[in-house]
Amino acid sequence: MSNPGLAPEQRQQLVDQLMTARRQVGAAKRSQDAAAERAARAAVDLAKRALGERGPVWWTDGAPDFNRRKVANTPYADWHATIASNQPA
User: Fold this and answer.
1) Is residue 72 part of a domain?
2) For residue 89, is pLDDT > 70?
3) What residues make up the domain containing 38?
4) 60: how many CB neighbours lie within 10 A of its CB?
5) Mean pLDDT of the chain
6) Is the pLDDT of residue 86 over 90?
7) What's the domain count of the chain?
């Protein structure tokens, strides 16, 4: 989800940049151009960060951010253990 605080015009411009970069990734892969693929992937990352899809969180609800943490080290550990124990072996 992109940052809802972006102006509609700015959001559309960033989405357009993202889609262009994604097409460039595909073209680079098809032509087996590793340097172009790296550059295109960097452009994808830049657009996603500008949209708020990657990087620092844009919301401010005051809740702690548990991303990039082992579930065992979060308040969700007990819940996850019950899910994991119900999975077929």
Assistant:
1) yes
2) no
3) 8-85
4) 6
5) 91
6) no
7) 1
In a domain, 3, yes or no: no
Query: How many other C-beta atoms can be found within 10 angstroms of the C-beta atom of residue 82?
Result: 8
pTM listed for this prediction: 0.69
Three-state DSSP class for residue 77: helix
The pLDDT value recorded for residue 70 is: 92
Quick check: 52 and 59 in contact, CB under 8 A? Answer: no
What would the pLDDT profile of 5-44 be if each residue is shown by its tens digit?
999 999 999 999 999 999 999 999 999 999 999 999 999 9
Closest to 14 measured CA to CA, from 29, 3, 30, 26: 3
Distance in angstroms (rounded) separating the CA atoms of residues 80 and 57: 24
Domain assignment present for residue 2? The answer is: no
d(CA 30, CA 37): 10
How far, in Å, are 20, 39, 44, 82 from residue 31 at the CA level? 16, 14, 18, 47
